[in-house]
Design brief:
Layout: H1 7-33, H2 40-47, H3 51-57, H4 61-81, H5 88-101, H6 103-111, H7 115-137, H8 143-167, H9 174-188
């Protein structure tokens, strides 16, 4: 008699190990070679899996590379920026330090064959955070406008982030990116309401 449920957890762990090995190998090889132009066989050899396993998890090589970038952001960065912080500059610096620390990887991703997909993935990852920010700063906006304004903000922020990662001289200074982003935000954010009873002449 076959016992139901026993093989599945073992299979799930094996599948997860293969996926994790491929994601880690993708980041490692992109950093080592400073390019996304990496053969599928090199990725599978580094992860110690077959080509078939790669294609079971990802559509193609670029799909793996973009997934590896998303995984890096989700594991290392989002838990930090999801925590409520009163100091906006401190939160922006957390973001800047993450990207500066992984500059070689992100620069290759933003200039390689998967640059467009990489930019879209970053926009999607930070979209929900931006919607929260927009709701807080622009109280009373309807949801479609919140989504559109958040997309507008994240598109501009992504452009500044990409230029900083790709073009700025080494070593990157996270403070420089934070200053640029906050300077633009200060122009775009609505003015704080005056306390009751206080009116400017």
């Amino acid at each position: 008699m076959q016992r139901h449920g026993s093989p599945q957890p073992v299979q799930d762990r094996r599948v997860q190990r293969s996926r994790s090995a491929l994601l880690a190998a993708a980041v490692r090889l992109v950093v080592e070679r400073e390019t996304t132009d990496i053969a599928v066989t090199d990725l599978t050899d580094a992860a110690d899996v077959s080509r078939k396993v790669l294609y079971l998890h990802f559509a193609d090589r670029d799909g793996l590379l973009v997934a590896a970038a998303a995984d890096l952001v989700e594991r290392e960065l989002l838990p930090q920026v999801d925590e409520p912080v009163d100091d906006l500059r401190a939160q922006v610096l957390v973001l800047a330090h993450h990207f500066a620390g992984h500059r070689v990887f992100y620069r290759a991703m933003l200039t390689g064959s998967c640059a467009f997909a990489m930019s879209r993935t970053l926009d999607d990852l930070f979209g929900s955070l931006n919607r929260i920010f927009v709701r807080e700063q622009y109280a009373g906006l309807d949801e479609p406008t919140v989504r559109d304004l958040a997309a507008f903000f994240i598109g501009g922020a992504s452009r500044l982030l990409s230029e900083w990662l790709v073009d700025d001289a080494d070593p990157l200074r996270p403070e420089d990116l934070a200053d640029r982003l906050l300077r633009v935000a200060s122009v775009l954010m609505p003015p704080s309401p005056e306390p009751p009873g206080e009116h400017r002449p």
